[in-house]
Amino acid sequence: MTKELLPLGSVIYLEEATTKLMIVGRGPIFESDGENVYSDYVGVIYPEGINPEDAIFFNHENIEKVVFEGYKDDEEKRFMEVYESWESELEVIKIKM
């Protein structure tokens, strides 16, 4: 099964949210409740942009609506192959949102 992730630059709404987010990272590892975990994405409020203190971590299943899908090319396919391999060997758990 091929994992589906949106490309960087995609703009989305999370479930029950009223503010748009732009995806700026995929597969971030971060600390939550004293434990290292990862999520599918890290996003920032659109159109304000990056504020490291306001980064929002979320998973693909938390997306309610895609407003804009970011740029994709052949590198995206290769990235997904590498990502799937990385994720299968990862020793931290995926956080449930």
Automatic annotation (TrEMBL):
Q: Which InterPro entries match?
A: DUF4176
Instruction: Classify the source by domain of life.
Output: Bacteria
Which classification does the entry list for the species?
A: Bacteria, Bacillati, Bacillota, Bacilli, Lactobacillales
Query: This protein is called what?
Result: DUF4176 domain-containing protein
